[in-house]
Amino acid sequence: MLSLHQLTCFLATYEHGSFTAAAEDLGYAQPSVSEQVRALEKTVGGALFTRVGRGVVPTQTGHLLRPHAEKVLGAADEALRAVRSSHVLETGTIRFGMFGIARLYAGAGLVSDVVTRHPGVRVELVGQNSSEVTEELRRGRLEAAMVAVPALDSEGLEVRPVARDELVYVSADPARTAAPVTVEQLAAADLVMPEATWRRSDSTRIVLRQLIHAAGLTPRTRIEVEDVETAVELAGMGHADTVVPRGAARALLPRLAPDAAYVSLAPRQWDTLAIVHRAGATLSPAARLMIELATRRIQTVAEPIDEPVGSR
């Protein structure tokens, strides 16, 4: 008989590509994970993984099972949250996903809002990149989140845009920020860009690639870094220029690049910020609270593009 425990072990193995890594992630013994996957294979009537070297790769059956396993575990988590919702705002844990740069917009302020209203709760504000947060939503590990949406595959998710933040060009050379930067100038520039790990799916990079490719040009990145603070600081040193959301530029330039300036692109470009949760999910009071407070926070520093909170 199929069990939640079996599905949990299956998804961990699918994600990590080995029984050993799955066991470490779950805190189980490796033989226990292997046994649960074998039991699940007997139930579905076919192999879910094939051994390759020291790891495993999913079979076609494994690929087919994955989205259904995620839905089942997500539904189970939603059921638990619904049962616990009567007291979660008093003593429970509130967990909400946000893209990494959000810490510059609303991170500390959002947490402060929550603990001021509900001093007995424990808060987890998690996420480094919108793609990572979206995957956590799909797996049921997060109930709701705020992400940048150009990189988002919305299948199975409900997406509600709430704000947009203009992308701006940052440079220590006054001549480069004297007028809006054209597509041709952008394509020719030596850039330092954050989100090196997530370069393929990062929202800002997708917007820029689409803009430059539409002009028949190719973007050029000279320096890859992980965090936006390093990108802005290097731009301030004059080693390369960068493109970041206006909110990040306003927050970071005075501290990290006081001699740099920023200017719009021509044509102007934006990151769109949205509230996201699983389609059809019944949101707990904790999730609804975080959505309300996060939306209000983000709309004070970025341009609102949706109805005011509470109008729906």
UniProtKB/TrEMBL annotation:
The keyword Transcription regulation applies. Pfam families: HTH_1, LysR_substrate. GO terms for cellular component: cytosol. Keywords: DNA-binding, Transcription, Transcription regulation. One of its GO terms (molecular function) is DNA binding. Residues 2-59 form the HTH lysR-type domain. The keyword Ribosomal protein does not apply. SUPFAM superfamilies: Periplasmic binding protein-like II, Winged helix' DNA-binding domain. Gene3D superfamilies: 3.40.190.290, Winged helix-like DNA-binding domain superfamily/Winged helix DNA-binding domain. Belongs to the LysR transcriptional regulatory family. This is LysR family transcriptional regulator. It comes from Nocardioides daphniae.
